[in-house]
UniProtKB/TrEMBL annotation:
GO terms for molecular function: acid-amino acid ligase activity; ATP binding. GO terms for cellular component: cytoplasm. Residues 497-506 have a biased composition (Basic and acidic residues). One of its GO terms (biological process) is cell wall organization. The keyword Ligase applies. InterPro entries: Mur-like_cat_sf (IPR036565), Mur_ligase_C (IPR004101), Mur_ligase_C_dom_sf (IPR036615), Mur_ligase_cen (IPR013221), MurE/MurF_N (IPR035911), UDP-N-AcMur-Glu-dNH2Pim_ligase (IPR005761). Residues 338-463 form the Mur ligase C-terminal domain. Residues 495-519 are annotated as: Disordered. Residues 114-315 form the Mur ligase central domain. The lineage of its organism: Bacteria, Pseudomonadati, Pseudomonadota, Gammaproteobacteria, Vibrionales. This is UDP-N-acetylmuramoyl-L-alanyl-D-glutamate--2, 6-diaminopimelate ligase.
């Protein structure tokens, strides 16, 4: 049962608040701006929502929230504060109260959920662009939340339920009809999307990732499959028939959802691509759906993006768009920010900015670049985040093997000693084709100085991000100019030496004495 803890101190409104009949009525009489769960992000007019978490009890942060302008508190125990305090029995009860306050804004929007080990950002962001050509649509994911002319940065790929309710309320006010959301395995495991019933879901693929959190691949797989469980009755699931786990995905849909499959290998799929051609500039293929065939051209480079565009087309037709209309819209797509963005540099080298950061995505990117870069060398700039220390050795080895030269640099250490991350990255490097540069912008400058005509520079891991998480506290991001700005700055300086030069701040990795030393 929800209760109201009256304000204390010198306020004169105690009697008025005590006379309120319900917590909902109290909220309705307050000038509520937003609901926030982090005291450091409170602004004047916000309501602070407390929660007893695994590592921190935010009830202890209520004084900080009040100093920053909170007009009320929703807590799970009585608090002695000088502003209205609504006490609910649990955090889920607090979410239900906020949902009632907003009058269930998510119910007025058609939700499309996208998950997968790789590709979900590109697919979700670009799907939103496709929907926006016809109807007001919104995107929520790694890049933040976009709708109308607004952009809201987010801490996580998939926000918590309270942040989502704030966004859904704003979307409703902006007459948004469709919402495409990236749904991470963490969010599914933690029930962050429990307030959303999806009209359609799309699983790009299921590889292996985030085992630091999920502990086993099976746990990771089951977390991904939970997105299907969030479908509305008679919803639709779009499945990649080329994925090894496609059968498990389809089985999960049984008696729950209509299934639309896509493939470029299996003729039994509903949507089949053939005659595939891809390059650094884009791709093209033929697609068949039911009795219709179309020629598809896309500005997204490389073969793995053909699979992503096929997933987008499958979702469009699953939601009853004519194939020809979907293909026509697709031809105008641009890459998502920081996702396989190709830049031609003044000396006719190319730079590709991509978020690739795990073994699957890096291997895919490197293989495709090598296939389409016959004349030039490949240079790679890469780091690993602090929570991927266990993957660092294999990532370092992969990038070293498939690059002419690899530059290891910083990428969100998250409190882990950067020297330990570099030691792991270089532990299985054979040969003398690796350089360590601590400062990421300087690292990009050094990499650019190596480039000659026909070469390709891969800037991996950060994508669109303009911050570094040096400590484990994600509320304390350190500013970083971003890979694109660093690239533009370096190219304007015209540093086209063509030969790698040693400068202050870099370390060459010596060749190991034997392979056995690296085991």
């Amino acid at each position: 049962m929800n209760t109201i803890s009256p304000p204390t101190g010198k306020q004169q409104l105690v009697g008025k608040f005590l006379a309120m009949q319900s917590p909902l009525e109290l909220l309705q009489r307050l000038p509520v701006r937003n609901f926030k769960t982090h005291s450091q992000k409170i602004e004047h007019g916000d309501v602070f929502v407390c929660r007893q978490g695994l590592t921190w009890d935010s009830h202890l942060s209520v004084d900080d929230a009040i100093k920053r302008g909170a007009v009320a508190v929703i807590a799970n125990r009585p608090l002695d504060v000088d502003i209205p305090c609504i006490v609910t029995p649990s955090h889920s009860s607090s979410i239900s109260l906020i949902n009632q306050f907003y009058q269930y804004p998510q119910d007025t929007i058609k939700h499309i959920g996208v998950t997968g080990t790789n590709g979900k950002t590109t697919v979700a962001y670009c799907l939103n662009s496709l929907f926006n050509q016809e109807t007001p649509s919104a995107y929520t994911g790694t890049l933040g939340s976009y709708f109308g002319d607004a952009h809201f940065p987010l801490d996580n790929t998939t926000p918590d339920a309270i942040t989502l309710l704030n966004l859904f309320h704003r979307m409703q006010q902006n007459d948004i009809t469709h919402h495409v959301m990236e749904v991470s395995s963490h969010a599914l495991s933690q029930d962050r999307v429990s307030i959303v019933d999806f009209d359609a879901v799309l699983i790009t693929n299921i590889g292996t990732d985030h085992l630091d959190y999920h502990k086993s691949r099976e746990d990771y797989i089951q977390a991904k499959l939970r997105l299907i469980d969030r479908l509305k009755p008679n919803g639709v699931a779009v499945i990649n028939l080329d994925d090894d786990l496609a059968a498990a995905m389809i089985e999960r849909c049984r008696s729950r959802a209509r299934v639309v499959t896509f493939s470029h290998q299996n003729e039994n799929a509903d949507l089949v691509a053939s005659k595939l051609k891809a390059s650094c500039e884009g791709g093209e293929y033929e697609v068949r759906y039911q009795h219709h065939k179309c020629h598809v051209k896309t500005n997204l480079p490389f073969m793995f993006n053909i699979e992503k565009t096929l997933a987008m087309l499958a979702m469009m037709v699953a939601l009853e768009a004519p194939l020809g209309v979907a293909v026509s819209r697709l031809s105008t797509l641009k890459p998502a920010p920081g996702r396989c963005e190709v830049y031609r540099l003044p000396n006719q080298a190319r730079a590709i900015i991509d978020y690739a950061h795990n073994q699957d995505s890096l291997s895919n990117l490197l293989m495709n670049v090598r296939q389409h870069s016959h004349k030039g060398r490949i240079y790679t700039v890469i780091g690993v985040t602090g929570d991927r220390l266990g993957d660092a050795a294999e990532i370092g080895k992969l990038c070293s093997l498939h690059s002419d030269h690899v530059f290891f640099t910083t990428d969100n250490p998250l409190g882990v000693c950067q020297d330990a991350l570099f030691a792991a990255l270089t532990s299985q490097v054979e040969g003398n084709n690796a350089t360590v540069v601590y400062d990421r912008a300087l690292c990009i400058k050094k990499a650019v100085s190596c480039l000659a005509e026909g070469d390709v520079l891969l800037l991996c891991g950060k994508g669109h991000e303009t911050h570094q998480y040096i400590s484990s506290n994600k509320n304390e991001a350190s500013p970083y100019i971003g890979d694109l700005a660093a690239l533009m700055s370096a190219s304007k300086q015209n540093v086209w030496h063509g030969e790698h030069q040693r400068e202050t701040g870099e370390q060459h990795i010596p060749q190991p004495e034997s392979t056995e030393d690296q085991q």
